[in-house]
Every structure is written in structure tokens, then in C-alpha cells.
Write a structure and sequence with these properties.
The protein is of the alpha+beta class. It contains eight helices and nine strands. The strands form two sheets. The protein has a seven-stranded mixed β-sheet. Strands 3-4 form a two-stranded antiparallel ribbon.
Length: 263
């Protein structure tokens, strides 16, 4: 379901262009706003069509890059919350009234660059399962398996010591290998066609650690702004504490239906 370019957030992309497949990946909004639950800022969120024997199934996928493995709460619970928000946000867009049969499965994939030692070099999936407490009824798997958080944990080993997806991610995201060497490894070991678009994307990903930290700070500031607005703190004080402009603070307030106390 992945595009060769690896950039599903740029628009509508043919998943298998060489095979003439009609399957698509399309981008989604990276903000999820509700009146009572506030705003969730996703790093990447997109919708993909995956092949199936009878007809394709549509999936909503969120990808988060995370430096802090212990941000003061279990990261897994945040991933589950993101999955829940992506399901609840489908009401009014993907389904209305009682048409729950249209709910699409969601994934929240967290790429953790600095996990603890016990979690390093692991890929862990969590999902809903059917358990028979009495009797043997069989529900359709697609009716209950609707949310899947996944933790992808990297580490400090050289990528040459690893294999598979962990090897590729460690090399691209964390290794200090030169860009051209990374591109050569992608081509030779992972059979990935190197295009100018992909080369540009890999160059950006090489600096992802800084980007992760920066996005984390930005998300943290947005959350701080929301809390300060709820506490009815003056606009000038919020701007002073968060180092964000008054226009941004007003926009956050407007997006979340919160008043702004000028001054």
C-alpha cells in the first residue's frame, strides 16, 4: 500500500503504477478538532486502499515520529487514543446516522528513535481479537479488528548489524552514513528505484531527528496554548511564555472555540 516515493501526504498517488492498479493513496488533514476534546496534531495521516480477494479495503493510517519514549505517560496509550480519534472523526464524513458498517480500519504507527534498551530493535502490533467465553459464534474479522497501534523501535546499533525494516529505518533516520551511500544501499539491498523525488525525500529524512524534536516542541506549545486559553490567561502572557505570535494564539483559540483575553 506504500508509494515508491514514500510521500503519501503530497496528494493522490498510484500505489502500483507499473501494474495499472486503480489503488490510490490520498492525503488527509493532519489536525483533528472537536469541540470538547480539543485538537490532535498528527505528523502524517493518509488513506490507502489495500487489495483483498473480493474488493479493496480502505485504511486510514497515521505515522508519528517520536524521540521521547517516556514523555510522562505510556506512549502506547497515546497511540490507542489516536486510533480512537481517527475512528470517531469518521462520523459525518465517512458515515452518518447509523451506518456503522462504513467505518474504516485505522492504524497509528509510531517510529521511536530513542526507546529503552528492552524495546530497542522491535516492532510490536496491538489489535482487537475475538475471545469466546461461552459458545463458538464467529463474527466477521473486519467488524471488530478496526484499530491497530504499532510501535517501531529503533536503536543505536549500526544499520549493518540489523536486517529488514529496522535496518532500513535505522540507516535512513539515524545513521551518519553519507546520503549517496544511503541511496546506494536502498537500491542494492532493498531493490528500491532511486528517483530524483525519492532522493529529495531521503535527504529530508536524514535530518528527521531534528525535525522530530522540532515538531515535538511545536506540538507541546500548541498544547500549552490550549491549556492557557482554558485558564483564561491574557494573550500577552501566553505569547511571552510560549514564544508564539498573537496571530497563532488567536487561531488556536478560534479552531477550538475558546475565548481570547486581550491584554
Amino acid at each position: 500500500m506504500w508509494s515508491r516515493a514514500g510521500t503519501p501526504d503530497v496528494g493522490t498517488i498510484v500505489v502500483e503504477p507499473d501494474g495499472g492498479s486503480p489503488l490510490r493513496i490520498r492525503n488527509e488533514q493532519t489536525e483533528d478538532k472537536t469541540q470538547h476534546e480539543g485538537t490532535v496534531f498528527y505528523d502524517i495521516r493518509f488513506t490507502a486502499l489495500a487489495p483483498r480477494s473480493d474488493k479493496p479495503i480502505e485504511l486510514i493510517i497515521n505515522i508519528e515520529a517520536q524521540n521521547d519514549f517516556h514523555p510522562g505517560y505510556p506512549l502506547l496509550k497515546r497511540a490507542i487514543y489516536y486510533c480512537s480519534r481517527m475512528i470517531s472523526s469518521q462520523y459525518g464524513t465517512i458515515f452518518t446516522k447509523s451506518h456503522y458498517e462504513k467505518i474504516q480500519k485505522v492504524y497509528s504507527i509510531w517510529i521511536c528513535t530513542e526507546p529503552t534498551k528492552e524495546w530497542a530493535y522491535s516492532i510490536t502490533r496491538y489489535r482487537m481479537m475475538e475471545e469466546h467465553l461461552e459458545g463458538q459464534p464467529q463474527a466477521s474479522h473486519e467488524d471488530y479488528d478496526l484499530l491497530t497501534p504499532i510501535l517501531v523501535c529503533l536503536g543505536k546499533k549500526r544499520y549493518t548489524e540489523l536486517h529488514g525494516l529496522l535496518k532500513m529505518l535505522n540507516m535512513v533516520l539515524l545513521d551518519d552514513t553519507k546520503l549517496q551511500d544511503k541511496l546506494q544501499t536502498l537500491k542494492q539491498e532493498f531493490d528500491i528505484e532511486i528517483t530524483p523525488h525519492l532522493e529529495k525525500g531521503v535527504a529530508k529524512m536524514c535530518n528527521l531527528s531534528e525535525g522530530i524534536e522540532r515538531r515535538g516542541i511545536e506540538k507541546g506549545k500548541m498544547e500549552d496554548i490550549l491549556e492557557m486559553l482554558k485558564d483564561n490567561l491574557a494573550l500577552s502572557k501566553i505569547a511571552l511564555y510560549t514564544k508564539m505570535s498573537a496571530d497563532i494564539i488567536r487561531k488556536v483559540a478560534k479552531d477550538n472555540n475558546l475565548p481570547v483575553r486581550e491584554g
